[in-house]
Amino acid sequence: MALSSLSPGIYLTHKPIGLSSFDVVRNFKRVASESDNKNWVLGHGGTLDPFAKGLLLILSGQATRLMELLHPLPKVYEADIEWGSETDTCDHLGRVVSAGDAGAVNKEILGGLIEKFLGWSEQVPPATSAKKIGGEAAYKKAHRGEEVTLPPSRVYLHEAVWIWHDLPCRSRLRITCRGGYYVRSLARDIGRSLGCGAHLSGLHRIAIGPWLDPGEEYQTLLTGADALPWCRLRELSEVEADHLAHGRPIEVGTMAVGRYSLPNGFPDEATPIVGVFRHKLVALLKERSGRLWTAANLRGGL
């Protein structure tokens, strides 16, 4: 569905295969430019590789200030893994760096092996990841032929289920992980554990938190409490909204619980309270000394 103008909020967008996440952002910037909003601020809530498809969150206007709150959300992927070779990019577009016989790989071995990757672990990102080295994305250095060595990152894999197998050639895996997890690295590490090598040949991001991939023809704009549905909500009066906008605290009052809960056992981080005035998300709040204070003022609201 083509957009003619932009509003503040979170757009649920489908990223097709072949486009980078920044290509999608640039398409939104073009809409902003054509509607005389050339300085409109835009960003995205989590990179997808060009060969991948699926849900991409486009943060528009004041919603760009919510990025850090979106990062820890559970993300659901379906990953196609090819057995028998590892590549330098950990995906099918890279150069094969090792190969092995996958003839002994079977469902029972894979079912037991994947359980070892669940929970918290130290994971080395791919050399062609967006991780920064000296302020520059690692993939830019790798594409120039520079040697890239990235330190491991602490990541979390909540759930992993094999969907189907076409052994010894390929399998499909569905995972739920925390933001910052590299599915390409998981494919590489499974292949190394098996001794035959493996790489990712396809990836589909199905969901982020409560939101599903809308499909190619649809986009959904989230505003108000719908932008942060896992946070507690405080409805504000006009007087309270004015107090908060000017840095003055308000009474804690009555708060509603969020409409979305993390999966059982998923790491839960401290989240702010959302302040909503006339159906718009106008502030992120924190409780201190029995009062509510403004942690972030979302001017104009979402």
Helix content: 10-25%
How many helices? The count is 6
Distance between the termini: 21 Å
CATH architecture of the largest domain: 2-Layer Sandwich
Class per helix and strand makeup: alpha+beta
The CATH superfamily of the largest domain appears as Pseudouridine synthase
- Report the principal-axis shape: elongated
Strand content: 35-45%
Would you list the SSEs in sequence order as H and E?
A: EHEEHEEEHEEEHEEHEEEEHEEEE
Average pLDDT works out at: 91
Number of strands: 19
The fold-level CATH name of the largest domain is Pseudouridine synthase
CATH class identity of the largest domain: Alpha Beta
Structurally, the number of domains stands at 2
Taking pLDDT < 50 over at least 5 consecutive residues as the criterion, the unreliable ranges are none
Summarize the biggest pleated sheet: 10 strands, mixed
Short description:
The protein is 17% helix and 35% strand. The protein has 302 residues and is an alpha+beta fold.
Can you walk me through this structure?
This protein has 302 residues and is an alpha+beta fold. 17% of the residues lie in helices and 35% in strands. It has 2 domains: 75-208, Pseudouridine synthase (2-Layer Sandwich); 224-302, PUA domain (Archaeosine Trna-guanine Transglycosylase, Chain: A, domain 4, Roll). It contains 6 helices and 19 strands. The strands form 4 sheets. Strands 1, 2, 3, 4, 7, 10, 11, 12, 13 and 14 form a 10-stranded mixed β-sheet that branches. A 5-stranded mixed β-sheet has the order 15-17-18-19-16. A two-stranded antiparallel sheet has the order 5-6. The two termini are 21 Å apart. The mean pLDDT is 91.
